[in-house]
Specification:
This protein is mostly helical. The protein has one domain: MFS general substrate transporter like domains (Growth Hormone, Chain: A, Up-down Bundle), CATH 1.20.1250.20. The protein is globular. It is built from 16 helices and no strands. The model has no long low-confidence stretch (mean pLDDT 86). 57% of the residues are buried.
């Protein structure tokens, strides 16, 4: 096996962890009704319980970045996959809100390095040019986890129950653990004297304030929050409860959105190579993604697009088109990683990427909690509107703070 082939297989093995992470955190979107029924929750309660996942993810992100730099990618990834598999088993056995809350904490902690592991490995093993390409590939491969949590898990849940979905995700984590053990080399980061965990954590947080990174940090706050909020939670209730679709048909529409999320990172790379201007691309696509969400709402009961056409609400094909557009546009978030990679020294890659990823997931936790409050006030439409507004505000902040070149 050539060195290049070995690096490729190692990255793909690490990507399996990202596949698991995406599958397990988006499962509630297609199982929200039965989760609420069996756990004794309303929509706001489910948002709060599942919102602890990104909060736990964000809380562990700084130690994960330090671990990637200090102990290496392989050891860190295997430890986190073991934790994630335990979390999936705990979710499958949950009998009420508190046990599911604990399971989500464990899952969030275990999944906290599933994207950073392949990204950090690639940042160290590849040139800057190849890393820009592979950052899109990593995101695209990882997003196939959301394919699993669309129609396939909808069918599984219909045939069995939501617990089988979590067990299937646990099996995927076990598969990823074995692949990493077999295919990823035991990397040994350059030794450096320990300055203590608190100083290392302070460095990660401090990186977020660096002029080269602070705009990206603001951008990240709403970016993944919108993906997780729409594809991971509120997309299913919108299609099933508001638009009246059966579970499998709703799963098919979410599957199409996920295909767009999977193809989007590759499209982002192609567009960047053709036209350049990463900053402008990131800004315009995220404002466009917000517009797609607002157009979804416009086609709902009483929405302005439905009123213009004289219909009670627009047919599912409208939602399909808007969700595909949303998935393609929001996927341009992957362009943030090459910006970060170019802004720091290679030995700081784990910390810098973790600082931005911290914003991705802290934003997801904060905005999902806010969306639950908005849902209690104005229903599912208000929850989805929360993410559209956040995308616009954070895109403006990114454009204002990112240094001009």
């Amino acid at each position: 096996m050539t060195a290049s082939a070995g690096v490729t297989l190692a990255i793909l093995a690490l990507c399996l962890g990202h596949v698991f992470s995406n599958a397990v955190r988006t499962l509630p979107a297609i199982a929200s009704d039965v989760l609420m029924r069996d756990l004794g929750l309303d929509a706001e309660g489910l948002a709060q319980v599942t919102g602890i996942f990104p909060l736990a993810f964000a809380a562990v992100m700084i130690p994960v970045g330090i671990g990637l730099d200090r102990f290496g990618v392989k050891a860190t990834a295997m430890a986190l996959l073991a934790v994630g598999a335990c979390g999936a088993a705990m979710a499958a056995l949950a009998g009420g809100p508190w046990s599911m809350l604990l399971a989500q904490v464990v899952l969030g902690a275990g999944c906290s390095g599933m994207l950073m592991a392949p990204v950090t490995f690639a940042a160290r093993a590849l040139s800057a040019h190849r890393f820009a390409l592979w950052s899109g590939v990593i995101q695209a491969v990882g997003n196939t986890g959301m394919l699993i949590s669309a129609s396939p898990l909808a069918l599984l849940i219909e045939a069995t129950d939501w617990r089988a979905g979590y067990l299937a995700c646990g099996g995927l984590a076990a598969l990823a653990f074995c692949a990493v053990a077999l295919l990823v080399p035991g990397d040994r980061p350059a030794p450096h004297p320990s300055r203590g965990l608190l100083r290392d954590m302070a460095e990660v947080v401090g990186m977020a304030a660096q002029p080269a990174l602070r705009g990206v940090v603001v951008f990240a706050f709403a970016s993944f929050a919108a993906v997780l909020g729409v594809r991971g939670l509120w997309g299913g209730p919108w299609l099933m409860e508001v638009k009246g679709l059966p579970r499998v048909e709703a799963g098919n529409l979410l599957l199409a959105c996920t295909l767009a999320l999977t193809a989007g990172p590759a499209l982002a790379g192609l567009v960047l190579r053709r036209v350049g201007h990463a900053t402008l691309l990131m800004w315009t696509t995220h404002v466009g993604a917000a517009a797609m969400l607002l157009l979804v709402l416009a086609g709902g009961p009483g929405g302005w697009a439905a009123r213009v056409l004289g219909l009670p609400m627009l047919p599912p094909g409208w939602d399909l088109a808007m969700l595909i557009g949303f998935g393609l546009l929001v996927s341009f978030q992957v362009l943030a990683y090459p910006l970060v990679r170019a802004a720091v020294r290679p030995e700081q890659a784990g910390r810098a990427l973790s600082a931005v990823n911290l914003s991705f997931f802290f934003g997801a936790a904060a905005l999902q909690a806010l969306s639950g409050l908005m849902a209690a006030w104005g229903g599912v439409a208000a929850a989805i509107g929360t993410f559209a507004a956040a995308l616009v505000l954070c895109s403006i902040g990114f454009l204002a703070l990112h240094p001009r070149r």
